[in-house]
Amino acid sequence: MKILLTASSRHGSTEEVADVIATELRQGGHDLEVVRPQEVSSVEGYDAFVVGSAVYMTSWTEEAVDFTRRFRDALASKPVWAFSVGLSGLPHGKVTDPRRVGPVLLSLDPEEHVTFAGRFDPSRLSLRERTIAKVGGASEGDFRDWDEVRTWARSILAALSAS
Ligand SMILES: Cc1cc2nc3c(=O)[nH]c(=O)nc-3n(C[C@H](O)[C@H](O)[C@H](O)COP(=O)(O)O)c2cc1C
């Protein structure tokens, strides 16, 4: 199957999650293309999609939201798996719940949507971002669980081979 994996990241942690998903999907023998959402000009010819975004201020990034808008009709007729990367739900992490990216996900109607824990590394952020995240109660650290990410990617492979 030809699969498009597109993920939007501001500071790299979501991109690295996407890389791990890509490695798993390729090992499953699929023809996988990884393209940033703002660089996708056509979605013709793909059989399935994996779409992800970092969550900022309860939303997917503008680029990810724009991707879902531009290709909503095409995406509606194919299987889509969605993932968010955020910090909510982590120890002391009070930044707003990533599941509230609701409208985007509703428009995508994904087979599944998961939220992976992300990374809060103040040294990579602007003063403004640092302040917002700190006020939001974010804990410093890299909370990404690579086994969880791999397991999810494998579940996509299983679903694709069953279809
Ligand atoms: C300014 C700012 C706002 C954030 N807002 C949210 C949020 O609303 N919900 C959430 O779960 N995580 C939030 N986060 C955490 C990010 O989603 C997390 O750091 C993620 O790993 C960033 O991904 P990236 O490195 O791919 O950009 C926020 C982080 C920053 C710096």
Automatic annotation (TrEMBL):
PROSITE patterns: FLAVODOXIN_LIKE. It comes from the Bacteria. GO terms for biological process: heme biosynthetic process. GO terms for molecular function: FMN binding; menaquinone-dependent protoporphyrinogen oxidase activity. Residues 3-163 form the Flavodoxin-like domain. InterPro entries: Flavodoxin/NO_synth (IPR008254), Flavodoxin_dom (IPR026816), Flavoprotein-like_sf (IPR029039), Protoporphyrinogen_IX_DH (IPR052200). This is Flavodoxin domain-containing protein.
